[in-house]
Amino acid sequence: MEPSRADAIVLRRREFSESSWLIDFITPEWGCLKTIAKGARRPESRLRGRLELFNRGRIIFYPSRRSDLHLLSQFDVTRFASAPGATLETAAYFYYLAELLLAVGFGSEAGRDLFEIFDRELGDASGLGRITPARIRFEIDFLKVLGVFPPLAVCGECQGDTSDRLYFSPVSRSWICSRCRSGRAGAIFIQEGVRALVNHILEGGRKTSRPAMSASQEKILDRLCRLLVDINVGKKIRSLSFLQQVKEVEGGRGRGGK
Predict the structure, then answer these.
(1) pTM to 2 decimal places
(2) CA distance 125 to 93
(3) Which CATH number characterizes residue 247's domain?
(4) Which of 6, 68, 124, 168 would you call most buried, defined as having the most Cβ atoms within 10 angstroms of its Cβ?
């Protein structure tokens, strides 16, 4: 069988045996890809030291005809991941993103776009700033790439214009207008500044700038993203709890140092 080649980023690494690893990659052409790296744990292996989490490179693998587990032959690293492990919170953030991609990326037609937004985030890792706004921006990009982020300009119930006042309905899982808001318990009012931030990210502004978020905007967007990700991913992302715990610990240390 002829080998296949692809750009790839290591998302997950697990022990398979005393000498081998199971490696999951994100690739532009294949989406998420499961591979076995036979003998990679041996001291003399040419793969040893290369298959670290979030390293980016070029893989050569042999596609399996019987299963979704493919044989990894070669991984030439083009960028070693150093910044993602700079702090515990940054490391926890990228673990969360990797789990998010693994939840939707196998067989995904959006593989190229998922690869690009994750690759961009890794490339910007040293300048992320505060993690919660970075996560919110990534999640909006992520939902847009999957084609599931509700259009802001259209009410999801009456299909009318939302330019007057905008709400998000957890019940209908869409933005709704002020007319449809009547009688809708739990609908979240979206401030104009929040709407502008979302539009900025959706229109690609995140590629060149990181707009600031106020505390109230961050709180609203965090809640919205949590709802939309939970609805569209369809499974619990366990590493998010760890990320939140790390944030609380780091926040406690910061307050204690004042």
Answers:
(1) 0.91
(2) 10
(3) 1.20.1440.120
(4) 168
